[in-house]
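Example record

The entry below shows one chain as it appears in the dataset: sequence first, then structure tokens.
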Amino acid sequence: FLPAKRRPLRVPRLSSRAQRPGATPARTQVPAQRTTTRGSDPARDPNFRFAMPKQAIKDEAIKDAVVGSQYLAGTGESTTFDHHQVLQESDDLIRALFFSIVKETTGTEFFQSLKEVYDLSEKFHETQAQSDFDALTTKLGSLTNEETMMLASAFSNVLNLHNVSEHVASAMEERHARLDDIPRGPAKTTNGAIKGLVAKGISKEAIYKAITEQEVDLVLTAHPTQALRRSMLKNFGTVRQKLLDLQRARLSGYERAELLDSMASAIQSAWRTDEIRRTPPKPQDEMRAGLSYFNETVFEGLPKFCRRIDSALINQGLPRIPMEHSIMRFSSWMGGDRDGNPFVTATCTRDVVYLARITAVNLYFKAIQDLIFSLSMWRCTDAFRERARLLHERETAEHVYEMRKQRNYADFWRSLPMEEPYRVVLAEVRDKLYNTREALQAVIMGKAEALDPADDSIFRDKNQLLEPLMACHQSLIEVGDGTVADGSLLDLIRQVNCFGLSLVKLDIRQESDRHADAVDAITRHIGLGSYNEWDEEKKTEWLVSELKSKRPLVAPDLECTDDVREVLDTFKMIAHLQEVCPGSLGTYVISMATVASDVLAVVLLQREMGGKMDQLLRVAPLFERLDDLNEGPNQLRRLFSIPWYHELIDGHQEVMIGYSDSGKDAGRMAAAWALYEGQENATKVADEFGVKLTLFHGRGGTVGRGGGPSHLAILSQPPATINGRLRVTVQGEVIEQNFGEHENCFHTLDLYTAATLEHSLAPPLAPSDEWRGAMATMSEVSCERYREIVFKTPEFNPYFLQATPGQELGALNIGSPPPPRPNNTGGP
């Protein structure tokens, strides 16, 4: 059939922003045109006839949506882009597929009801007439309970599929912007940031120094804001990828039909899947869900992103990023955030650390198997040949063959010849990775001795894995094979430097009162009275004296509550994991931190439960209420004034600031200003004591949790508060938005890197005294009014419970923490 005449573009029914008269477009839009694609494209010829198999597209609505599409017809990638039109075309196609599936699976009667409700809704949206609204309510009122449930499920799927369209449009926009098909607007790429900084007169040397020293740490959390099950997300991810494939490639009729079949299969699978989790996920399940993004996009995307930065630097006459430095890091709270979640125990923390390690080892194992095929060269340095010879002499051909055959490696079972020295060395790396995976699986099965720190047949830290890879790279460079060295080998070296042996570093978070109760149990047991009844001065003095002392405090027969025992078990597990899985843990975050003793207590408990002084986790107080944000800098001054603590931190301190609880405590206006001033004042205190401060931003996806455009949010931070060091949470549904698709993953890495670089070298101007006075007044007034309504108005709580779906959301099994979380410590 011939391409149908393009239908008039309708306003997207599900995109409210685009429908408001006079609304400013959210993104740059380029007039849609039928233009040639990249390269020769006979499909653009009006006489071109699709080589489509008969009956491949039976539904006329689907056929119309595909053939009449500018972007999804399978005729190749366009050189123009219109966000509005891409969104409309994607909606048209997947909605047509969905309606066809509903008709086929439920019958004509229900399909007609669905179509009628949809058409009535669309009509009322366009006319806003009371008569059309009445017709809609009459129709809805005529449905049975079963029909109503099915209708709600159908519209839920329609809305979820529209979100897929949004993701596709965003990914396409990002790609077309990188291809210079459309203007990007303000620089949101590292390349754009570098060019902009050069234009501002900042030296290239300063730019290179800043980018090779900066470190952005994205911390994935399992806050229960992602309502969709992983099964649903996977199906919608398939639909998203097939839509992207339709617009990027020139397809034959058969290929296009196969893509549509795959989309229909995924849509039907989602439609026939129970949308509601019948049992709550465990923290281990949440960690598995988080790690899936590394398997799908992040692990592969990181080296590609680094190469783009290399190109941007080389274009400015600068060297590439040093191999030994990673500008991105990844951490996690999944299985480590025990604040308000009784299911996150010491055992749970152990499980997720081993789970992350196994996932990392699997990824490295596959990469090494691929690399063995690639590095077939015989030229190497004398030192590297000697290394290979020693490994070769240790092997017996028959033993090696039998061992590798039993392990069912992809290839190279037999002992490799000395004429392939790189393969000899990498074969040993492959064997050690296999042994490491086996040891981790044995530990999970209960054999704790399987992870022996003295066992040299397994990898325990990333340096052990890096060393042979770096030796291969150096040898290749020295013998003139630099191009080979800087291929997939360089990518793997960068992955190891970034992800280590754990993919993510697990943060531990617990509430300050839980630590105080643990110390209180200790002081009572040794006859010193109640720690909780001491004033702050006495607490600090005693903690410092004990930290300087070497006497043990925790007796084996310590009598304590189950809660205190769990706290102590957690610190014991931390010490164990630091020994057998070094590099797997990150920061110990203290929620509801208010005073200096909160930090000192955690340091003491780490040491008392077996932690070695050179392996203690860094401790970050979390200031999240208005008073704590205002008082936080003073407590940092108290900490830094203690010589023992100042020596311990070695010039580095991390502080977390919470956006969610501060907003709940004081309202958004007062909280935002307190966060701004708190960062300024904390940085000034750190500078006084020669301490480099890393600010950890606990932001969520919604406005109430500090959400907003990430690039703008970073650039709007107070000057001199980032300085190339940034930690920020990526919570709940934002993880899927940022890392669910390759283009969006690349864009996320690019955006955070660019904004951090730009803020560090060209920070925003500090507000004037006049503006500070205005903000202080507005904050005071807004906070007073907010608290009057929320905390002092008796009618507010009943109204809030009735006007919001809070209780219903609490009943959904969308997260492992049981609702409600105690003491309002919901976290940032």
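Notes for this example: Residues 543 and 600 are 6 Å apart (CA to CA). Residues 1-56, 821-828 have pLDDT under 50 and may be disordered.
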